[in-house]
Specification:
13 helices; MetI-like fold; mainly alpha
Length: about 280
Amino acid sequence: MLRRFARDRAALLGGLLILFLLLVAAFAPLLAPFPEDVWQFHTQNRLQPPGADWFFGTDRMGSDVFSRILFGARITLALSLIAVGSAVVIGVPIGLVAGYWDNWVSELLMRIAEIFLAVPQIVLAIAIAQTLGPSIENVILALSITYWPFWARLVYAQTRSMRNEVFVESAVALGASPLRVMVLHILPNIASPIIVRTSIGMGATILTAATLGFLGLGAPPPTPEWGRMIAESREYLPEAWWYALAPGLAIFLTVLGFNLLGDGLRDILDPRTRRSAGAGKAGNG
């Protein structure tokens, strides 16, 4: 698996981008040239262009944009991990239960998930965040509430196709409880699509969180959140072009990294993809 991952250049690039993001978030206080200025005002230095003193220039507060980008990586990564982790914790058990049994509980769970899926996710997240008020905690809650149906629906479909397999029927015949069958037999065999969906979902979560921040529904100022930084830069375009370019580029590279990693993991972990690729090579030969 590691050899296949190393040969997949797109997945390798995505993994390197994510690793870089993790290192930046972990060592932001050491990497930032002006860590103490992230939450402070320095009006004498406001809107300075990129140069030797400020790599990405300064913002309207006079703070170093590069330092704020580094600290913003911490907020973005923590927000996305908590939101996606909460969605997985909620959606996967619901999908397992609904997919394993055929009763009114399964129907009710899936109808609730479909109600959430019927509304565009970004619209529902905006409505929830607007109702709760601007804060990082409310953004996490809004994303968790609107994302869990994606995992529930995925696990539901996978469980439906897996519950009639021979090894599942054998476990049931040997007296295994439904919980044991779901956790020890079905869940490990559907882990691959869950991992792929989680990786791609991280990129979508970061983009949605940035959108909420841009609309003023995310972290309050002067928190170094990438979406809010882009929103604040609108008043100073096009003169202070660096103000919007730096956080926009950070969002682009982060989302690109998770999407490339997710596509690569799908090709590596999905045996049907490997079989079709092998059949294609055999046919060409």
